[in-house]
Specification:
Distance between the termini: 15 Å
Helix content: 25-40%
CATH superfamily of one domain: Amidase signature (AS) domain
Largest sheet: 11 strands, mixed
Structural class: alpha/beta
Shape: globular
Strand order of the largest sheet: 1-3-2-6-8-7-12-13-11-9-10
Strand content: 5-15%
Number of strands: 13
Length: 487
């Protein structure tokens, strides 16, 4: 096996056993990126020199017998919405093409403290608005399993980089499925934690009540290792409650004895791809073999999830994008303007892409006088109903199981001219963000066209141990997660 194909835990074992060095591991990922990046476009900014220096420092710690932990010396990639001190952070937008933050996001600080080797910043939809990475100012990211297809979004670059061996693991963000959907499209593991479990400080906002931070990895154990390092209260983020962080590795067991798994009938929607449904149904049978009790449950308000999300999310996008005025930082129009209003108008018209403009307009309309009660306020009320619905269901079972997406990855350009079709790709993921609960995406097979299929495991608030346990047991019994794309 190539070094770039290793998991975090296997790479950590190899480093401690001195089978290879962090520099050799890092060079393997860099060489892999050099050979496939032109085909994939996973990265916006590569930081090879910095990564090699960090790897040398990690090797020095290993030589001195002072490794910092399981992430020390392990090469990773960071979605290009995390502020990184001294390294360009663009949010895949023309607006921030030359923005270099003066500070690190809390998550980046924590990874640096753990001995991170950062290979660079990965591609994303502009300001994370999208499900295909096609709205990026820097071009679309391709799927390593089929270069004619999208890697998903908005964390498409992070997913593609992990699947292709351009890094050992990566960080993504998930506002409506942006970790889980590309993870499923690319055949990797993606964890959307409970809202507030990981600090958002220093991560460029899309929709502040929905945004979550999470790892994208090659297996569930790796996801647990990264979550362990990142979870916890942060004084700089008031949405991170001071809830104790358990030892997530303790929850990883090879069987599911005593675990109740709920299967919401509403998750198997009309028109779902037959291969996708088969993959999840087969996975449910495997979970039962592992000792789980399978229970059919109902989430009757699921039909409203997508509508609620696409009112709340654009509304918060509209509010968050207001700061990009071209004066304090970011893109400024070069055209002559007669007054401040014209300057703002031209700057924003030139700086934002079409998907951003669409969401800003929808959100501004939903928040405007005379429409606020009819749209935004009503959506928040239905959101509360959806949240209670998940809470009630998860009192009866330990986890919920369902498909991550309705179908495998679609072709580049197939849906870009039909935003409604693109938004429908989020139909099975957005309700989890609305409810604030955690969800873990794992691969469950391949379609007849050899495209990865994904399943999500949903748990109660701050119940990451439960979903990690189920995902780990499933991966101990199957090998879908260990298959690698050939490019």
């Amino acid at each position: 096996m190539n070094l770039f194909d290793l998991t975090i835990h296997d790479a950590a074992d190899g480093l401690r056993a001195k089978k290879f060095s962090s520099v050799e591991l890092t060079e393997s990922c860099i060489e892999r990126t050099n050979s496939v990046e032109k085909k994939l476009n996973s990265y916006i900014t590569q930081t090879d020199a910095t990564a090699l220096q960090e790897a040398k420092e990690a090797d020095a710690r290993f030589s001195a017998g002072n490794p910092r932990g399981p992430l020390d010396g392990i090469p990773c990639a960071i979605k290009d919405v995390y502020c990184t001190k001294g390294v360009r952070t663009t949010a895949a937008s023309k607006n921030l093409d030359d923005f270099v933050p003066p500070y690190d996001a809390t998550t980046v600080k924590k990874l640096k403290a753990a001995g991170m080797v950062s290979l660079g910043k990965t591609n994303t939809d502009e300001y994370t608005c999208g499900g295909s990475t096609e709205s990026s100012y820097y071009g679309v990211t391709r799927n390593p399993w089929d270069l004619e297809r999208v890697a998903g979004g908005s964390s498409g670059g992070s997913a593609s980089a992990v699947a292709a061996g351009q890094c050992i693991y990566s960080l993504g963000t998930d506002t409506g499925g942006s970790i889980r959907q590309p993870a499923s499209y690319c055949g990797i593991t993606g964890l959307k934690p409970t809202y507030g479990r990981i600090s958002r400080f220093g991560v460029i906002s899309m929709a502040s009540s929905l945004d979550t931070i999470g790892p994208m990895t090659k297996d569930v154990m790796d996801a647990a290792l990264v979550l362990q390092q990142l979870a916890g209260h942060d004084v700089y983020d008031s949405t991170t409650p001071d809830v104790p962080v358990p030892n997530y590795l303790d929850s990883l067991k090879p069987n599911l004895d005593g675990i109740k798994v709920g299967v919401p009938k509403e998750f198997f929607i009309e028109g779902m791809d037959s291969d996708q449904e088969r993959g999840v149904r087969d996975a449910i049978v495997e979970l039962e073999k592992l000792g789980a009790k399978i229970v059919e449950v109902s989430l009757p308000h699921s039909v409203y999830g997508l509508a609620v999300y696409y009112i709340i999310c654009p509304s918060e996008v509209s509010a968050n994008m207001e700061r990009y005025d071209g004066i304090r930082y970011g893109y400024s129009t070069k055209s002559e303007t007669k007054d401040l209003l014209e300057f703002y108008t031209k700057t924003r018209a030139e700086g934002f892409g079409s998907e951003m403009k669409r969401r800003i307009m929808i959100g501004t309309y939903a928040l405007s006088a005379g429409y606020y009660e009819a749209y935004y306020l009503k959506a928040q009320k239905v959101r509360t109903i959806r949240k209670r619905e998940f809470e009630d269901a998860l009192k009866e079972v330990d986890v919920l199981i369902g498909p991550t997406v309705p179908a495998p990855a679609f072709k580049v350009g197939e849906k870009i001219d039909d935003p409604l079709q693109l938004y429908l790709e989020d139909i099975l993921t957005v309700s989890i963000n609305i409810s604030g609960v955690p969800s873990l995406a794992v691969p469950v097979g391949f379609s007849k066209n050899n495209l990865p299929l994904g399943m999500q495991i949903i748990g109660p608030q701050f119940g990451e141990e439960k979903i990690l346990r189920v995902g780990y047991a499933f991966q101990q019994a199957t090998d879908w997660h260990s298959r690698r794309a050939v490019i």
